[in-house]
UniProtKB/TrEMBL annotation:
It is an enzyme of class 1 (oxidoreductase). Pfam families: ADH_N, ADH_zinc_N. InterPro entries: ADH-like_C, ADH-like_N, ADH_Zn_CS, CAD-like, ER, GroES-like_sf, NAD(P)-bd_dom_sf. It comes from the Bacteria. It catalyses: a primary alcohol + NADP(+) = an aldehyde + NADPH + H(+). SUPFAM superfamilies: GroES-like, NAD(P)-binding Rossmann-fold domains. The keyword rRNA-binding does not apply. This is alcohol dehydrogenase (NADP(+)). Its EC number is 1.1.1.2. It comes from Streptomyces griseus subsp. griseus (strain JCM 4626 / CBS 651.72 / NBRC 13350 / KCC S-0626 / ISP 5235). Residues 14-341 form the Enoyl reductase (ER) domain. The keyword Cytoplasm does not apply.
Amino acid sequence: MTTVAAYAAPRAKAPLERTTIERRPVGEFDILIDIKFAGICHSDIHQARDGWGEGIFPMVPGHEIAGIVAETGPGVTRFKVGDRVGVGCMVDSCGTCDACLMGREQHCAEGNTQTYNALDRNGEPTYGGYSTHLVVTEKFALSIPEGIALDEAAPLLCAGITTYSPLRRWGAGPGKKVAVVGLGGLGHMAVKIAHALGAEVTVLSQSLRKKDDGLKLGADHYYATGDPRTFEELAGTFDVILSTVSAPLDFGAYLALLRTEGTLVNVGAPEEPVSLNLFSLILGNRSIAGSAIGGIEETQEMLDFCAVHGLGAEIEVIGAGQVNEAYERVLASDVRYRFVIDTATI
C-alpha cells in the first residue's frame, strides 16, 4: 500500500479537508497515475453532501482525472511510463455480462465500480481524483491525445462523455436542431460538441446573461427560459433537447418544444422526484429519456473527436485549498465553466 495526500469530506455535508489515503499496490494489469488535474463536477457536491443517498465517508471526490503514467504492472500493454492518461466515472466492471461485452461498462449487470463513493470488487472503498496518485486497471484508463492540454482534458472525462454519448446516440448532426438546456459545466461542452457534429444549436438558459459566451462556444441561437415568449416562439422546433440542469423542469413546457417524434434527454439529475403529464408524450409521439456516461471505447472516441476539433473544457484552475469555496461558487453558478484542481497544491 502507498500513502498519498488527498482532499476528503470527513462526513456528509462537512467541508473538505486535507488528509492521507492508502492506494493499493500496482498489480499485474494496473497503472499508477501521477494525477495532475482533477475537475470538480456538480455530482461531487451532490455526493459529498449526501444529496443522492447515503455516502461512504471519508469521501475523496473526483472523477475527472488527468495525469501521467508513473508506473506500470508487468502485464500492462496499453500504456507506458510517461503517457498522458485520464480516468472518468468508473474504474472497473465485471467484464463478462452482455453490457460489458458490448462496450457499455457503464451499464454492467453487476454494477460498475465508481471511481469514488463505491466499494471495489474486494469490498474496499474507492477514492477519487482529489488526490496526488491513483492506481487503476489499464482497461479503465483513457489515452489523452496530445492535442488537448491536460487541465482542459480533465473535465472531458465526465462532462465531455456525458454530453457526447447522447448527442451521438440521438443523431445530432447536419440537418438536426438541438437545444441545450443550461450553460454550465455540462452544457458548455454540449454546445461545443453539438456544433462540431454539425447540428444547429440553441441554448435555453434562465436568462441572457451568458448569451455572448454561448454564441462564442458554437451556439447558433440563445433564448431565455424566464421569458414565456420563448416557449411560444420555439414550439415544435427541436429534434433533440439535452437537459444538463440538476433542477426539476416543467417537462410539459419543454416537451412542447420538440418536433413530432423528438426526444428530451436528461443528463442532469435532480435530487428530488419530478412529475410528468403523459399527454406531453402522447401528443406528438414524443419521448423523454435519460443518459449516463459512455463506455470506455466511446469515451476514447470522444477524446479523439475533441482533439481533432480542438475542443477542451472552459476552465478555472484552482488550488486544492479553494475547493470548498469552489463548491459554493458552483452552486451559485459562478464558474465559467469548470473548476479544475491543480493537484500539485494538495
